[in-house]
Write a structure and sequence with these properties.
By secondary structure, this protein is an alpha/beta fold. Helix content is about 50%, strand content about 20%.
């Protein structure tokens, strides 16, 4: 218990220290830490290489290696940026937003009183995008507390700073998402995490059968909401917030058709900034026959 308390105290102190920096400085520090992570040749780089070889076999090994390294640097930088976003007032982050592309995809649905499901893949900085959503309209998102309990109030306060409502990742939370969409609100969901087998089905992702969450499909079917994709793309002088339309097929009542369209939407987002995607995530752990084993050393 003592060790856990020390770890928690250190993590809180580090988050507060980094969070006190301007966003530009936390990004620079994060990229420096990212280069250090690449130099260690640890699991982040190893898993990124495996995923990129699977998703982009047409690329040369040299191109994939460059992409893997850049992705790891960007992922670490995202973590440092998050500390600032959680600790600074919204106007500090808002000043870093250089452009919002296709904003009408979101605002048209909100103004029409139609619930909008925003699917936010792990590209660039998803935290600034989540904070932005709550400035457009009432926003509800799922929230799983961090493994380090001491960080929970800091992260929760940061995510709720612009008015978002966080709900637990259980049946009660899903009910809250349904209520929000039926009431014309915004719901944010991260669509590219591997679900439990009970909460997913297999659909193509970069040409490979991939366990994909059925949460979005269920929300669409039960509420008739509008669906858009969005992410916060890192640019030289801040962030560009990007919104992209979902394919019509995502509204299909056939689950596999809808899930395939969801994954194609994630792929379209990745195509905008492949070097900013979190390739270190073990997205292909399972195959229809069981576990893939591709990440074993």
């Amino acid at each position: 218990m003592y060790r856990l308390d020390i770890k928690g105290q250190f993590s809180v102190a580090a988050l507060k220290l980094i969070g006190s920096l301007p966003l530009g400085w936390s990004r620079r520090l994060g990229k420096l830490a990212g280069y250090g992570t690449v130099a260690t040749r640890g699991d982040s780089l190893r898993i990124s290489r495996i995923n990129l070889a699977r998703c982009f076999p047409e690329m040369s090994e040299k191109e994939r290696e460059k992409l893997a390294r850049t992705s790891v640097v960007n992922t670490v930088a995202t973590g440092f940026e998050m500390a600032t976003l959680w600790r600074k007032p919204w106007n500090h982050a808002e000043d870093q937003i250089t452009r919002i592309r296709n904003q009408q995809l979101l605002t048209d649905g909100v103004e029409a009183g139609r619930g909008v499901l925003v699917l936010v893949p792990h590209i660039g900085n998803w935290e600034i995008f989540g904070q932005y959503l709550a400035t457009v309209g009432p926003t509800t998102s799922l929230y799983a507390p961090p493994k380090i309990e001491a960080l929970d109030p800091l992260i929760r306060d940061g995510r709720e700073s612009t008015g978002a409502t966080l709900v637990p990742t259980n049946v009660r939370g899903v009910r809250a998402l349904l209520k929000a969409l039926k009431g014309g609100g915004i719901v944010g969901v991260l669509p590219d995490q591997e679900p439990d087998l009970s909460g997913g089905d297999f659909a193509p992702f970069f040409g490979h059968p991939t366990l994909t969450m059925t949460l979005a499909y269920n929300l669409i079917q039960r509420t008739g909401c509008k669906v858009v994709f969005g992410f916060g793309k890192r640019v030289a002088d801040g962030f560009e917030l990007v919104l992209l339309p979902a394919e019509q097929a995502i509204y299909s009542d056939e689950v596999k058709v809808s899930l395939a369209a969801l994954n194609r939407g994630v792929e379209s987002c990745i195509a905008e900034a492949p070097e900013q995607y979190q390739w270190e995530y073990k997205r292909f752990r399972r195959i229809p026959e069981g576990k893939s084993g591709i990440y074993r050393k």
